[in-house]
Design brief:
AhpD-like, globular, mainly alpha, 4CMD/NDH-1_regulator, peroxiredoxin activity
Length: about 130
């Protein structure tokens, strides 16, 4: 999609999803990257609208799949993993469900990747406790 002709339907769906799971994401991305990659923030919201809102599987399942993939990829994905753990919690997934999926990824990404992801998840859970 070009900047001149965005997919407005995908953008609207993405904006709604991001608003529920990661409020402020578009603004944060725009503030950080707009000067070097104009349109990146909007493109990512639109991509979320094309992928996370497709139906077939529910949002919780998509977030668990994302957490699994990010865990298996290892430590370089920790910032993104924390974002998706927080999104999964906002969608109603329990700490136990999230930790179980992270643990299962020890078979595919190794124990160091699993511990890194688990520590990232614990940071999200601790931040939740600070919010209450």
């Amino acid at each position: 999609m070009s900047l001149e002709s965005p997919n407005n339907d995908a953008y609207a769906k993405g904006a709604a999803y991001v608003g529920e799971t990661n409020p402020g994401m578009e603004d944060a991305l725009r503030a950080r990257y707009e000067h070097v990659l104009p349109g990146l923030a909007r493109d990512l919201v639109e991509l979320n609208g094309r992928t996370y809102t497709r139906g077939v599987v529910d949002a919780k399942t998509r977030e668990l799949a994302t957490i699994a993939a990010l865990t298996a990829q290892g430590g370089q994905t920790r910032p993104q993993l924390k974002i998706h753990v927080a999104a999964a919690r906002k969608l109603g997934l329990s700490r136990e469900e999230i930790c179980e999926i992270i643990y299962q990824m020890s078979l595919y990404g190794g124990m160091p990747a699993m511990f890194n992801a688990l520590n990232g998840a614990l940071e999200v859970f601790q931040a939740e406790e600070g919010d209450t």
